[in-house]
Design brief:
The protein has three helices and no strands. By secondary structure, it is mainly α. The mean pLDDT is 82.
């Protein structure tokens, strides 16, 4: 995605190469049914793993933002009742 945002000659070349790679991958998958079914299975498994990654990242977020407890005041409390 970055190669499509940058404006240099190299970025354009990389962007074209990426697009050609995806077109070639699609052609290969269309011509080989066994490979296509394996690739589809991998994509389905990745979808299942996304749920696990979400749980992990949520827990990491909780660990990186610990609850802040109110600080105890040091000293004696002065009461109005004597």
């Amino acid at each position: 995605m970055l190669s499509s945002v940058l404006r240099s000659k190299r970025a354009r070349q990389v962007n074209v190469a990426i697009m050609r790679a995806f077109v070639r991958l699609r052609q290969i998958l269309e011509s080989n049914e066994e490979l296509n079914s394996k690739f589809a299975a991998v994509i389905r498994n990745l979808g299942e793993h996304d749920e696990y990654f979400k749980v992990v990242f949520d827990e990491l977020e909780k660990l990186s933002n610990p609850l802040t407890l109110p600080h105890r005041k040091i000293g004696f409390a002065i009461s109005d009742k004597v």
